[in-house]
Amino acid sequence: MNIDHYFKIAEELNVRHKQVSDTIELLDEGATVPFISRYRKEVTGSLDEVQVAAIRDRVQQLRDLDKRREAILKSIREQEKLSPELEAKINKAETMTALEDLYLPYKPKRRTKATIAREKGLEPLAELIFAQESLDLEQEASKYIDAEKEVKDIEEALHGARDIMAEWINENAEIRTKLRKLFIEEGKFVSKVIPGKEEEAIKYKDYFDWTEPIKTAPSHRVLAMRRGEKELFLMLDSSPEELDALAIMEKQVISSQNTSSEQVKLAVKDCYKRLMKPSMETEVRLFTKKKADEGAIKVFAENLRQLLLGAPLGEKSVMAIDPGFRTGCKLVCLGPQGQVLHYDAIYPHEPQRKKAESAAMVKHLVEKHQVEAIAIGNGTAGRESEQFFKSIGLPANVLIVMVNESGASIYSASDVAREEFPDLDLTIRGAVSIGRRLMDPLAELVKIDPKSIGVGQYQHDVDQSALKNSLDDTVMSCVNGVGVEVNTASKQLLTYVSGLGPSLAQNIVAYRNEHGPFKSREEIKSVPRLGDKAYEQAAGFLRIQNAPNPLDRSAVHPERYGLVQKMASDIGSSVTDLMNSEELRQKVLLKNYVTETVGLPTLQDIMAELAKPGRDPRETFEVFSFQEGVNEMKDLKVGMKLPGIITNITNFGAFVDVGVHQDGLVHLSHLADRYISDPNEVITVNQKVEVTVIEVDLARKRIALSMKSDPFAERGKAKAGGGKRAKREEKEPEGDMAAKLAMLKGKFGK
Predict the structure, then answer these.
(1) What is the mean pLDDT of residues 526-543?
(2) Where exactly are the structural domains of the chain?
(3) How far is it, in rounded angstroms, from Cα 649 to Cα 296?
């Protein structure tokens, strides 16, 4: 590892050099981000998960850069073209783009126009012209007329020389750097509908005639325009004014005003149109795509975190319903650990309309299985099913809860579901998933591809590898932050525990099935192929609720059990009594236990854990109900105030479920003022809100909502400005609204 990289990363992240070097050492030894941030605070100086992950990702980027640098140096060296000056430039290059610019003249090429011109012996003529000295151009060019080499006349000789010069200009690293900056800072996205596709491309109507600066285009619009282009509905251009680009290029290469210079100018124009512009457009598209991907992935990952950390109902007996009309409602009764006790189907809706029989069956099953809550999927017939269950006279203590069923159908057809329930129908598996995600969203949602959960922004358009890495990080962070009961966790949940992975997770489940529940964390070491390193990484995140040793139920790492026992012994107490008594814990003087490897951060974590062993960081579950009588979009009226749940947060606002099978959008400009003015106010997925309907478009299935106290007054102000500008500000954040967006995005990480 290049030692300079430690200093670079430390400066970029505003942390100390030693924090970076020690963290990289832990990562290289196989430690995970959750383990490092939770159990190695003394080593890292209490870096959090975000900082540790940033160091991990940045060091990988720099290592990739070094690897590419070595490959380039080797290639040029083998060509015997590596000068000390060039080598110094390559070693100083700080980005992959800068490296590739320097390598471009030496990179093996396919056969180009310049290659053909060289084969015709025209390179000396190109060199002569490029020097731009006064000369008789026609006389010099005539010397290269050669029928055998297919140079028939002066113009053909000059044309070949221009092809060679165009390639030189294109490979000039300084010119490329200046042009790249121009494209990014002054270029514009210009989107137009392909003639004749206006009706077919109606969902891209906003981009039929759209222009905006490349440098300020938000990620959602970049991805939307690219998708429209990919689907052959839009034409998309991304470049600056041609005259500005040519002026920059000419300034770099034109040194005289003579006939040779005129040839160089022609070469510059040819270079720009044929080589430089397509190349820069490709680079800009890649750059803006990467930037848009990063924005979309960040939003998706934070939405996923909030969804995974949704409040669990807990270990209750649950009846789960996958609602439907024609095919009926699939019904499942689940025990407190999520085990399937009974499954059936009821037909309370059209066309069968067997309400009495359905009600009788539900009441019987509720009593038989002592059902404490009913989970109803929020898809087709969801609201109608909710009304049915509320109308049949169930005991008042039975909760009736609408559950977001996004991804349940994906789960039901997955290998995971087939492995869990090989004998159950797909629809029954879907109902099981709905019920279990009410009991514990995290434990159930880890079984579903995060892209199918429904909280993303253009998740299928972004870099899939980067998306997977980010979502894996998010799921792992959530799973380890909450902790996992090793005796009941599924293989999928165990997979995300620090240090495990699919193979060891499967081995844990197999061992558990063969030998019965684990009685201690120490017994986990008996799992085949689970070595000391994996145990070190995983043990603190695994819980054993009924273990004889109370510390096995906590997040205290086994490597610190001796320390806790010493604390208890020093005050004449048992570990159990220490955990049960605040008075005893107050007697422990933490400074007495500070060593070279254990500092106050770890000691404070231990004491907090002793006070609430195995505490669940998630919020307490609260029942939510949609507005009675509002079940479909046609029931919505402008001005109506409704309760709703935030289902998705994007760069342009929040989507809210108001119970009509189509989420409405609260645009950024219609978020409640408190989210802008109060830094402690945050919008989150699963948050309960009150919204006002401000527009309903049945044809396009779009609902516009507002969280403002007087949304129509604000709307009137926007329209008062008149014209296209006012309408655009209503749609997208600009100026002050963009600053407000940045504030909200900054809150997403909280």
Answers:
(1) 96
(2) 3-90, 113-300, 318-439, 633-747
(3) 10
